[in-house]
From TrEMBL:
GO MF assignments: carbohydrate:proton symporter activity
PROSITE patterns: MFS (PS50850), SUGAR_TRANSPORT_1 (PS00216), SUGAR_TRANSPORT_2 (PS00217)
Species of provenance: Ferroacidibacillus organovorans
Coiled coil: none
Designated name of the protein: MFS transporter
Annotated membrane topology: Multi-pass membrane protein
Keyword Hydrolase belongs to the record: no
Family the entry assigns: Belongs to the major facilitator superfamily. Sugar transporter (TC 2.A.1.1) family.
Superkingdom assignment: Bacteria
Length: 478
């Protein structure tokens, strides 16, 4: 007797029960390596600026342009990259993006003027923007419903801790080479991510939910079967999650158009999620790009300031992993609120710190909770949209958040720092963190422990109606 083909609803239900087994761990490692490469490329701006500020006699405006150049590329590259991710797949965009930013970053070592360096960093940012949100998309669409946040937390922990690498390289270069060479070394090492391209091409699978959206159900069936074999699970073709199935049926009636992301309910959801991401990124960019400069202003030497900024990033990696574990158990909103609140306390302590111990506590709170907030902060964005809009929605959200935090904020920060000092800056960050978290607490949706189909459904009312309609259709005739 011929075995019936599994339905899309069945395949998604079976995928959502796969535990963290070896193939899933391999996916986590590959995506963590992608983020590691990205972190190094983005993170070299701080150490480079610390050297060039004196070597090239950079003005306040010059520092602002150097700080935002790659971020400007990231922001402008995100919309076309998001549309490509929904059109040609997540896998291809990751591989091409790494190729682009790695090759262009190496060219930065050959720059002889600020203008040349700004153009190179902008072009590298286009590749970075294509890659940056995709690991969140992958893990949201691939991993067990009850393990999404912890898997993102582990991979993001590597990303955040990896920002230590450019600071270590920068500190080594500053202590070892003359300034004319010290700033070039990080750019030369930017070629290392090219070695990732072959493993990604061989072993990175395409997102199964993207494949289903494109009608490539047989590929998903083969993937799910292999995962079940590895997990010693039966191939149950009758298994269906009714709520996820109803959400999937609703999604089939909706159009894949950018304008739909800007309509209710996705506009409201997106604005709330983007707000909290913006607050987190403001703290991140200020510490990443101007962390060494802020610490130097407090009396630390250049090499020590660069190294301490890197240590804060490593601490944040631990915070990321723990946040993922906690949010899968206690919910996104509660854990996000705690992290944002304690990060704000850290910023206030930075503003009033007058001795080493207070500065150390401030650095721990700001890094562990503030820089460690991103697993759930970014996963929450991905969980607001259905599969056919998720790529565009995530990229649009990232574009808005990074536009405000990485371009607007960093453009004005050197002037604000010169005018008001670092204490006012840290107080302002604390206020921003709380202000952007309040809407999530009041009106945000809890998306923990449910499938991404349910999380991204147009409305709970429509979902309930679709479930009831389907139940009536399959009732036996009297």
């Amino acid at each position: 007797m011929k075995t019936p083909h599994p339905s899309e609803e069945n395949l998604l239900a079976r995928l959502d029960r796969i535990p963290i087994i070896k193939p899933v761990v391999r996916l986590l490692i590959l995506l963590a390596c992608v983020w590691l490469a990205e972190a190094f490329d983005i993170g070299i701006v701080g150490p480079v600026m610390a050297v060039l500020k004196g070597a090239w006699h950079l003005s306040t405006a010059d520092q602002a342009w150097l700080g935002i150049s790659s971020t400007l590329g990231v922001v402008l590259g995100m919309i076309p990259a998001g549309m490509l991710a929904d059109r040609i797949g997540r896998r291809r965009v990751v591989i091409v993006g790494i190729l682009v930013f790695s090759v262009i970053t190496v060219l930065g070592s050959l720059a002889h003027s600020l203008n040349q360096l700004l153009i190179i960093r902008f072009l590298a940012g286009l590749g970075e923007g294509a890659v940056l949100p995709l690991p969140y998309l992958y893990l949201a669409e691939f991993v067990h419903t009850k393990r999404r946040a912890v898997s993102v937390g582990i991979a993001n922990g590597v990303l955040t801790a990896a920002y230590l690498l450019p600071n270590l390289v920068g500190s080594y270069a500053i202590h070892t080479y003359a300034s004319s060479m010290a700033w070039r070394l990080p750019f030369l090492l930017g070629a290392i991510p090219l070695f990732l391209v072959v493993p990604l091409y061989l072993w990175l699978p395409e997102s199964p939910r993207y494949l289903i959206k494109k009608g490539r159900v047989n590929e998903v069936a083969d993937l799910v079967t292999r995962l079940e074999d590895a997990a010693n699970l039966p191939h149950d073709i009758s298994l269906v999650n009714p709520r996820a199935a109803a959400a999937l049926r609703l999604e089939r009636t909706e159009e894949t158009r950018l304008i739909n992301v800007l309509r209710r309910p996705f506009l409201t959801r997106g604005l709330i999620a983007t707000g909290q991401l913006t607050g987190a990124l403001i703290l991140f960019y200020i510490l990443l790009v101007y962390g060494p400069t802020l610490l130097m202003a407090r009396g630390f030497g250049t090499g020590t300031a660069v190294l301490l900024t890197g240590v804060m990033m490593a601490i944040a990696g631990i915070g990321s992993i723990i946040q993922g574990l906690l949010s899968d158990r206690f919910g996104r909103k509660a854990i996000l609120s705690i992290y944002f609140g304690l990060a704000a306390v850290g910023c206030i302590l930075f503003a009033v710190s007058a001795n080493g111990w207070i500065t150390a506590i401030a650095a721990f709170l700001s890094s562990f909770f503030g820089l460690g907030v991103f697993p759930v902060s970014k996963l929450l964005v991905a969980e607001q949209f259905p599969t056919h809009l998720r790529g565009m929605g995530v990229y649009l959200s990232e574009m808005g958040a990074r536009g405000v935090s990485g371009i607007v904020t960093l453009s004005f920060l050197p002037f604000a720092l010169a005018q008001f000092g670092s204490a006012v800056i840290f107080v302002a960050i604390a206020v921003i963190l709380i202000a952007f978290m309040v809407p999530v607490w009041i009106a945000g949706r809890e998306t923990a422990r449910i499938s991404v189909e349910e999380a991204g459904a147009t409305s709970l009312v429509a979902l309930a109606r679709e479930m009831e309609s389907n139940r009536m259709k399959i009732q036996p005739m009297p």
